[in-house]
Amino acid sequence: MSDTTQLLRFITAGSVDDGKSTLIGRLLHDSKSIFEDQYSAISKTSEKRGRAAVDLSLLTDGLQAEREQGITIDVAYRYFATPKRKFIIGDTPGHEQYTRNMVTAASTANLAIILIDARRGVLTQTRRHTFLASLVGVPHIVVAVNKMDMVDYSQARFDEIVAEYTAFAAQLNLHDVTFIPLSALNGDMVVERGDSLNWYTGPALLELLEQVEIDHDVNTDDFRFPVQWVCRPQTEEYHDFRGFMGRIEAGEVSVGDEITVLPSGHSTTVKEIVTYDGKLQTAFAPQSVTLTLSDEIDISRGDLFVKASAHPPKVEKEFEATLCWLSETPLEKHRKYLVKHTTRTAKCLFSRLDYRVDVNTLEHHAVEKLNMNDIARVALKTQLPLVFDSYTTDRATGSFIVIDEATNNTVAAGMIV
Amino acid sequence: MSKHTFTHLDALESESIHIMREVAAECKNPALLFSGGKDSIVMLRLAEKAFRPAKFPFPLVHIDTEHNFPEVIACRDKLAADLGERLIVRSLEDSIKRGTIVIKDESKPRNPFQSVTLLETIAEFGFDACMGGARRDEEKARAKERIFSFRDEFGQWDPKNQRPELWDTYNTRVHAGENIRVFPISNWTEMDIWQYIGREKLYIPPIYYAHEREVIRRGGNVIPVSHLVQPKPGEKVEVATVRFRTVGDMTCTAPVESTARTVDEIIEETATTRITERGATRMDDQTSDASMELRKKEGYF
């Protein structure tokens, strides 16, 4: 690994039957990311369970609590690195609660691998996974057509699946889709190319993961800086220092730039960009920095700094959103909840439940209450104004979570329309 | 952004700073758990990056088992003093005196008891959030734990009842008496830690680097000889060239044979090692497939 290694986060969508665990196991094994003690542990288990070969899928086996109670914990994170990139895999096991799990894992992902069993082609679950990936705005999609060994590595079968998927995906908002034929079991086109898929000239899976262009996965145009924390050292040396700390969520900012503080609307200029490693002339997303300003303005946590741009954010107390309900306790329309959006938390209520989306057919249904895993179009009213963008413009300023004040649980994830 | 270089270390650093600032802003009375080990030393640098030029908006807290390597305790005290930050130390001995911990065998690891003193310390100061330097790559129970990990009144982790964590929008809310553990370096790996120590030129306890040490070999493990671990009849003390990959309880932390005397050499060794960090060095995790999971449920970090 060198000093210029980038970080890529991806998820794998598919069921055990599609060979998802085997694919992850293969990726880790062939990229030499499995340690001997881990390997010997799964060898022992494979033997105990009477498997002929070492079962790589055991690497993603669950916790004692999961095994004993037959449940799956929603997301496990796994790490591996090659000389080109460091990878974080958000692994979401199980069929049940799939919507909730996948939305959670996809929310931070640069890329989603959608697994298809070459024998079975595009299934309902393929549509569901693809819809959820598009809903959460995962920037890159890889359709991995697995088990090619079971269809004699047939190019015709692969082409058929590509055509079927492409026709379906046309109605969704996907920007970058790549198809790869592979066999996780035999290791063809995962890390090594193998000898059986010579008709395929595109990249193997790991090669693609190493090369996909991710610099533009964050919005690079519209500067957004939610204030997290106001720094006032009140020491002799920094007597008058008043720095606004936060992470640049989109765009970039330079010393001397005019910025507007929302929701108040006051404008000023950036005096300094302060970091522990010295002052900067320019800073960009997703850096965490401290800004000092030329004028004394009343600013606190929850305010947002922006620069004039073609897409100004909205400042509103009412907005529409796509909501994914995550809690076992259904949404009750007459109750008030809390919404946490960037660094601002406000009371909210649901003024309308417009419709629920069937994640398998994309059909809309009338809805009275929301249950776990439901995806719905809703309208919210908040007690304080929020400063937001549409989710498609900016994932950070277009997303929010809903918290139930009675339990303090996170009960929903929202994407502003 | 393509005109800027933003490496994986930059990305991890920025994420960790963001998490620490969320804790400072949203939690009423947070603390940073600091042991003098390499991961918590990285946490300290991240806290400097997050809050300087101001002081940290939280104290450093160490739960001392009194089974620690003296070099690590010296490093803990030196770094806290150099930074001019407040360090609170609470010892398992205090709990033993109070009778809340009963030790049967002095030579056995004390990790299982650490949670008792930690919970007592949390109650003493009323902490509602404790930041710790645990990483998800360490162990499979950790791999499934949230960055903001909610604990009930008994400090227990309930793996099947975790709050979903979406985007970077963290739910920090707790009721009175409850608290959260926060792991800002969840997404860092052992390799990232070493690369960051190299990049930031961090001072770490010298026992992380290869040195000569008296050891005995017991049950496939290399065990450092100390006042707590003496050779049993028939065991031979030998001098080996070793370094520690983790620095925990002296009775259960095994060094690895190594000649890596610089950070660069350690990075090279980490890149080629075939054994996980805990697998190589923590005898207490080898007892059962679910050791860590069980300890966490009891309130361990």
What does this structure look like?
The complex is a heterodimer of chains A (417) and B (301). With 417 residues, chain A is of the alpha+beta class. Chain A folds into 3 domains: 7-217, P-loop containing nucleotide triphosphate hydrolases (Rossmann fold), CATH 3.40.50.300; 224-306, Elongation Factor Tu (Ef-tu), domain 3 (Beta Barrel); 314-416, Translation factors (Elongation Factor Tu (Ef-tu), domain 3), CATH 2.40.30.10. Chain A is built from 7 helices and 22 strands. In chain A, strands 7-15-11-12-14-9-8 form a 7-stranded antiparallel sheet, with no helix packed on it. Chain A has a 6-stranded mixed sheet with strand order 2-3-1-4-5-6, with helices on both faces. A 6-stranded antiparallel beta barrel of chain A has the order 16-20-18-17-21-22. In chain A, helix 4 packs parallel to helix 5 (124-135). The longest helix of chain A is centred in the middle third of the chain and has 15 residues, at 155-169. The two termini of chain A are 40 Å apart. The mean pLDDT of chain A is 89. Chain B has 301 residues and is an alpha/beta fold. Chain B has helices spanning 8-26, 38-51, 70-83, 92-98, 111-125, 190-200, 263-272, 277-281, 291-297, and strands at residues 30-33, 60-64, 87-91, 129-131, 148-151, 179-182, 211-218, 221-224, 238-243, 256-257. Classes of the chains: A alpha+beta (417), B alpha/beta (301). At the A-B interface, helix 2, helix 3, strand 2, strand 3 and helix 4 of A face helix 1, helix 2 and helix 6 of B.
Brief digest:
With 417 residues, chain A is α+β, with helices and mostly antiparallel strands. In chain A, 18% of the residues lie in helices and 34% in strands.
Rg of chain A, nearest Å: 24 Å
Q: Strand-residue fraction of chain B?
A: 5-15%
- For the largest beta sheet of chain A, what order do the strands appear in spatially? 7-15-11-12-14-9-8
Task: Identify the CATH class of the largest domain in chain A.
Answer: Alpha Beta
Number of helices of chain A: 7
Order of neighbouring strands in the sheet with most strands of chain B: 3-2-1-4-6-5
- Alpha plus pi helix count of chain B: 9
Number of strands of chain B: 10
